[in-house]
Known about the structure:
Layout: H1 42-51, H2 59-69, H3 73-79, H4 89-107, H5 123-155, H6 163-194, H7 197-227, H8 232-261
Helix pairs in contact: 3-6, 4-6, 5-6, 5-8, 6-7
Amino acid sequence: MKSHSIKRRKATICYNCQTALLNSENYCPQCGQENHSKQASIRLLFNDFLSDYLTFDSRLFRSIVPLVTDPGRITVEYLNGKRQRFIPPVRVFLFLSFLYFGLSYLTGNESSTLELSVNESERAAQAVTEAFQKNFNILLFLYTPLFAVIIRLLFRSEKRDYYVNFFVFTLHLFSFFFIIGIIQLLLFGVINTLFSGDTNEMITMVVQLGFLVFSFVYTVISLKKVFDKKYTFLRFVGVLVISLVAFLTLLILAIIILFLINL
């Protein structure tokens, strides 16, 4: 294996498989994980992503399945140093986001499409609407690190203090949301094929409500498992309120900027 040029803070054991390591060993001889400290870093996240981008093997399934069925598990294992078994957080986030937005485009159900009623004569407003629709995905990517900041405000502790811990959690949580979005798009395609009219609308509403409740419960369980804080539910409500205000603020700023550009 090639040796990375980044400065390592070496450990005496491999956090992935618990094999004893020598100070001279840059990689675990048992599982191949890099000999680095348990604490991840932003640089490590992106090094993981760039090292073998799109090299998906059985780790894809080992990452996707627990993302849906075991809230918070792969986040805890990653933050505890067990990084060899799963796809790195940045890579799985980007892979699932590209898959979701691509599927949205192919099915004609783009998440970036907002129905904004504007007068056809108001060309500037129409141009803003179109520009916003095209750049909504970028807005979502910009919001991801901001959401990690909000989580850190209410769930920071001595054990989980560094920002990267909350960023990893956010990448995994948003990856889960993309999986849910992909499943919904596929289900809606089937529903639209089999049903029409009021029946279609009723089934769609029930499915959306079910996924919303599942996502809500999943997020609370994930937060509890990863950060182990008291009053997790109340803290999560605080996260929802703050994140909604932050997203709306970001949204308004984006619309203003797009409007000024298209004047």
